[in-house]
Design brief:
heterotetramer; A: alpha/beta; two-stranded antiparallel sheet; B: alpha/beta; ten-stranded mixed beta sheet; three-stranded antiparallel beta sheet; 9 helices; globular; transferase (chains A, D); CoA-transferase activity (chains A, D); 3-oxoadipate--succinyl-CoA transferase subunit B (chains A, D); NagB/RpiA_transferase-like (chains A, D)
């Protein structure tokens, strides 16, 4: 069965949730991955959306974080302040799953403004949403981003959300309780923070993708881990589940 | 006690030029009908407050009703950019738009402080983020017991909050359910509260997950069937995802946008 | 994930000597059965936390289980004094009882801070009251935006919170309704959570006004039918007001109290 | 129809709610008065109990502030933090109605400890409950207290709840937003703060009670207002409503 790089990215992102109990889900690619995980590697995964749902079990991919089915299928619906204060901030969520516009080598995120150069107005992005506190408060953070020099940049124009700051020890200094980003899952492979330097390095490549291709699509000089793995292609079951989800999507 | 008014009367009596206005609803229960009435009545110089500006504020901003936006995520959910919002911020069209920008956690707590009539709220937030450097409503406070430094955000207390709800009774008690979002806090933070509802009923029989706003905490109730469209009202209507997708090409171009607003808002109702 | 255990197992595995324990329920859903099991297991040196100590803590205090009480109103509601509480405070019988005393607003906000994992909460409270002079968990904080000075209270984070609820499903998800009081905050503020329920059911069909605590926020669920008696469980039992009245003479005298506890608690179950 | 001083006290307390829209109700005498008001002078009165009920309409007098009927008949039931933060603290309640163990001439309240003299342990009272913030945050405060030197004292052993502090201007200095106590309703008459001094003075006497009797039963040198009114005896309707309420009580 043939598959696209985007499909393998989503399948691979779902696999990263195999050990998780609870996941705070950003909309878009993270939501697709988290819903796929519930159909494949982690049927009991508890999905938490910032619109206030605990334990959503949608039968199709929601377009927004506030689709009715997220509430209708939830174990509990709470207010927005409660979801952020009692559940996220209190450190009850295992994994935060985020998308991003710009990511740097320490997995910091910019979703606020783009510097378009002298004399031109800043380009406007949507803003922070839940990301700064999701990245701060969850046990760990997964990110899913399409691999390009536009998305993976040498220098952020604005730090909306802190990943590993300027390197090792920065999260502790800032008082960020969670472990921070542990993987950036792309359509070419996976980047993970080097255990020593906290810099994102290439640790996994999709079948048929070379380290050079990944480096070429990265805005900083991407280092390669000593042992780069090859992503398992999607199984027939994974692919069928993903396509069924997407077909039912809005 | 809430007065039951027509939407036109309710907007005319509660929303004034220069007001700080919150129209809330986290994807669900967004008060589009009321926003369209504000546009029709030509109310301007508004400071608009909303966690997720969404298409509703894209329309208000594009029509020049706002001078400032207080928010935490300004996109078309699941679709892409809000083009009128971007055009205002990037190019000042149709007028410049001042921003006060937060995270969701920060905005939610600003409403909580507002509803509690406290001047600020405390949270673990913004650590290391550049957001704190751009907003005068983000600061820090030190715990008097542990010495820990935490984020502080200023309360938000709109002049008017507008929300949409499923229904009200004849006394003006309001009931809403489903994703209740930040509706209660936004309403209780405001000086004046306008609620549009799908219908007026004789009695509000209890519903799972329902929030009730007693009549004496609301100023006006107006019937606006399907008043959240293209957003939705659980139990009454479903989200018009096609409209959200369709908004992208409509809103990309200034003239297309203006023509659409003329046909569907200004000359409607 | 919550384990479904017998009440004996649940108390044995979650409540330890020296713990800070909150047994909450604002008149409604007071976990008497669990408190009696704590007494039977002879757990001592507890710091007991509760807004309204009520008869449940009168019993624990009279049996010598507590070394400290954190509270905001210690009476027999509608009847009069808690005699065992008074005897412990005034005469040190059966052992001295240290107090940390608040107002309801202060205690409620201490739980909110605890549930939010913040070190403190802010409120307009205690102004001019001597309460602030007696408690190390009351202080002040200054608003970084307006300069106003407000009260600050330290978070309360019990080692264990025990609550009673209507029911749970087989996965340990808990559902309660009626006066939900401070139950959710008390549970979420704790390290460990024990919930007694009237029954285990196959599915928690939605109920008006219901709070659901997901299984993964609870540590043990134990079935204890009528486990709130003489308090009540809306939809299952009614408050035994006669018992509250009868408690007054039972508890006035040390020996009468001890005989009653022996007959109805120690030798029961 | 004959009536007792306690009955007239409760009837008179109910009458004081004639103009109120919302009342935060303490348990005991205040609850009896507020419920009576709903049956006589103020059918639409919104009763708010600290257990979290907005708009309770009980058919019988509750024994505690948490009786099931308070919730079953309410317009809304909210959490205890919400009732204190969003409703009371936010200044939405017109009248706070309190009982008290000890009251001084400035309508300050002690419900914490009694000084029993040298060498004897402090006597223990129930504590503050909701009173400090009810007295601070409501538009105004009514109190209902049995008239005796034990209850109306020269000096409080402990200030649990501030009424008018040490006199005029004190509430403003302390930043207490409401007007504070406007009447202390007793079984002999009514005391109200003097507009100039904020000291409680005798403004109303029950039929057949003399100012001397009231002074005798007061722990401070009770002053009498220039024009002391006589409390209207209970009407047949008031008395019938009160007795029906009480008979149905626990």
């Amino acid at each position: 069965m043939s598959w696209t790089p985007d499909e393998l990215m989503t399948v691979n992102a779902a696999r990263a949730l195999a050990g998780a109990r609870t996941c705070f889900v950003g909309i878009g690619l993270p939501s697709a991955a988290a819903n796929l995980a519930r159909r494949t590697v982690r049927p009991g995964l508890v999905l938490i959306y910032e619109s206030g749902t605990l334990g959503s079990k949608p039968s199709r991919l929601p377009l927004s974080i506030g689709d009715g089915e997220l509430a209708d299928t939830a174990d509990a619906v709470v207010s927005v302040p409660e979801i952020f204060n009692y559940w996220l901030q209190a450190g009850r969520i295992d994994v935060g799953f985020l998308g991003a516009a710009q990511v740097d080598r320490y997995a910091n995120i910019n979703t606020t403004v783009i510097d378009r150069g002298p004399g031109r107005p800043e380009g406007r992005l949507p803003g922070a949403g839940g990301a700064p506190e999701i990245a701060a408060g969850c046990g760990k953070v997964l990110m899913v981003v399409r691999h390009s020099r536009r998305n993976l940049v040498e220098r952020l124009d604005f730090v909306t959300t802190v990943g590993h700051g300027s390197g090792p020890g920065d999260r502790a200094r800032l008082g960020l309780p969670g472990a921070g980003p542990v993987a950036v899952i792309t359509d070419l492979g996976v980047l993970r923070p080097d255990p020593e330097t906290a810099e994102l390095v290439l640790t996994e490549l999709h079948p048929g993708v070379s380290a050079e291709q990944a480096a070429e699509a990265t805005g900083w000089k991407l280092r390669t881990a000593p042992d780069v793995g090859e992503t398992e292609p999607p199984t027939a079951e994974e692919l069928a589940a993903l396509r069924e989800l997407s077909d039912r999507g809005a | 006690m809430a007065e039951i008014l027509s939407l036109r009367e309710a907007v005319a009596s509660l929303v004034r030029p220069g007001d700080t206005v919150a129209m809330e609803g986290f994807t669900h229960l967004i008060p589009f009908a009321a926003a369209h009435e504000v546009i029709r009545q030509g109310v301007t110089d508004l400071t608009l407050v909303r966690m997720t500006p969404d298409v509703i504020y894209d329309q208000l901003i594009g029509m020049g009703a706002a001078r400032k936006l207080v928010f935490s995520w300004g996109g078309n959910p699941g679709v892409g950019s809000l083009h009128r919002f971007r055009d205002a911020v990037e190019n000042g069209w149709p007028r410049p738009l001042e921003l006060d920008e937060h995270s969701h956690a920060g905005m939610a707590n600003r409403y909580v402080a507002g509803a509690s009539r406290l001047p600020f709220a405390v949270l673990r937030g913004y650590r290391g983020s550049d957001l704190a450097t751009r907003s005068p409503t983000i600061s820090t406070v030190r715990c008097p017991f542990t010495g820990e430094e935490l984020a502080a955000v200023a309360a938000v207390n709109p002049d008017v909050t507008v929300i949409h709800a499923q229904r009200a009774d004849r006394d003006g008690n309001v009931q809403l359910w489903g994703l209740v979002g930040i509706q209660k806090e936004a309403a209780l933070a405001a000086e004046r509260v306008l609620v549009t509802v799908e219908e007026i009923v004789d009695a509000l029989d209890p519903r799972p997950g329902a929030v009730v706003l007693p009549s004496w905490s609301v100023h006006a109730v107006a019937v606006a069937p399907n008043g959240a469209h293209p957003s939705y009202t659980a139990g009454y209507t479903v989200r018009d995802n096609d409209f959200y997708q369709a908004w992208d090409p409509i809103s990309r171009d200034r003239d297309t946008f203006l023509a659409w607003m003329r046909a569907h808002v200004l000359e409607a109702a």
